[in-house]
UniProtKB/TrEMBL annotation:
This is Vitamin B12 dependent methionine synthase, activation domain protein. Residues 78-190 form the AdoMet activation domain. SUPFAM superfamilies: Methionine synthase activation domain-like (SSF56507). One of its GO terms (molecular function) is methionine synthase activity.
């Protein structure tokens, strides 16, 4: 069973570089315990051939996607997964219950729910990574619809291709939000081209989604061209909801 990273929950709640008060820590742990009891884990994935045509075209599963960010992420990949996971509607029920009883618990459930789906997806991706390693391949970091310049409308294609209502119980609202809310869909590239040694290095040097200005890889990653010391923008990013944060 995966474990939630408490420091990430604290960060979502606004405690950056500091420990919450003891009573808040206790309350967070109580909420997390309830969430473990309420979660219902479901996932699905399919692997497809992928064609990447620079600078901004990706073809996969009968789709033609125009996205510079996704093109960078999947460059060098001959296959890619379409992946989905959810921790279930029970977490949404806890959030609603918290809103009725007082917003503190609701905020904790929201923060811990965000970490829960990330931790679950990371565990699943770890299993896929080990499978692909046996055939000499590595996985690229997850890249989701709605992130960077990847169209959110692709959620409809994920739902259709992966049959999400049937396989995971995930449905879409009119505004393309997923229900259960603590769910994730993503492309995961599969490559034998090892441009970098780690995901962090790949994100900073090759496919940093924060860079939408056409800067060089060194500029995008925050390299100091005088000293040669890189300050990874991902590591300095203050976004709360970025799956690429360090």
């Amino acid at each position: 069973m995966f474990e939630l990273r408490l420091r990430e929950i604290y960060r979502y709640l606004g405690f950056r570089g500091t420990e919450p008060p003891a009573d808040t820590v206790k309350r967070i742990q109580q909420c997390v315990d309830r969430m473990y009891a309420a979660m219902t884990l479901r996932t699905t994935h399919r692997k497809f051939p992928v064609s990447v045509k620079k600078p901004d075209t990706v073809e996969i599963a009968g789709l033609t996607i125009h996205s510079r960010n996704l093109c960078k992420n999947l460059d060098g990949c001959d296959q890619a997964y379409m992946f989905a996971a959810t921790v279930g509607v029970g977490i949404d029920r806890l959030i609603k219950r918290g809103e009725i009883g007082g917003m503190i618990d609701a905020l904790i459930y929201q923060a811990a729910g965000a970490e829960m789906i990330e931790a679950y997806a990371d565990e699943l991706n770890g299993a896929l990574r080990r499978t692909e390693a046996k055939r000499g391949c590595r996985l690229r970091p997850r890249f989701s619809p709605g992130y960077g310049d990847v169209p959110l409308a692709l959620q409809k294609d994920f739902s259709r291709i992966l049959e999400l209502p049937k396989t995971c119980g995930i449905t879409l609202t009119d505004t393309l939000l997923m229900v259960p809310s603590k769910s994730v869909t993503a492309f995961i590239g599969c490559t034998k081209n090892f441009d970098t040694e780690t995901e962090d290095a790949f994100l900073a040097d090759v496919a940093n989604p924060l860079d939408a200005t056409g800067k060089s890889a060194a500029e995008a990653s925050g390299t100091d061209t005088v000293s040669g010391e890189r300050e990874n923008k991902c590591r300095r990013c203050t976004k709360n909801d970025c799956q690429f944060r360090n």
